[in-house]
Amino acid sequence: MAEDNAMNQKVSGYLEKKSKMKMMNSYKRYWFVLEGRLLLYYRSKDEYEAISPCKGSINLGPACNIKTCPSTSGVYVFQIETRTSTTTLRADNREDQNRWMQGIMSALNQNKNAKKLSHFR
């Protein structure tokens, strides 16, 4: 039952995503939705509610890792590392940062549990 709850847990809200361009240190605000092992992002909450295609996604596969970044001047930054990329996200406050990190860690733990269980199938 706990595994089902982790997979069905949905976390949503605004986060800022850092540009992938190394020379740019800019962030853009997106509406993020955690659905199972996928972290989807949309231009806005309205686009998500209108069932528009997502702007992008991050697959929280078994090789994924999440970590906080050193905080300066009240910035709540964390990173999601996959096999192929690192995504830097910034929350509005510590509470939102913790909520997102707990939701993502729950999805990552689900991946580890599923991998262990797959040996018994």
UniProtKB/TrEMBL annotation:
InterPro entries assigned: Boi1/Boi2-like, PH-like_dom_sf, PH_domain
Gene Ontology cellular component list: cytosol; early endosome; recycling endosome; trans-Golgi network
Source organism: Anoplophora glabripennis
Protein's recorded name: Oxysterol-binding protein
Gene designation per UniProt: YB35
Key word Repeat present: no
SMART domains membership: PH
One Pfam family per UniProt: PH
Gene3D superfamilies: Pleckstrin-homology domain (PH domain)/Phosphotyrosine-binding domain (PTB)
Entry keyword Phosphoprotein: yes
CDD domains xref list: PH (cd00821)
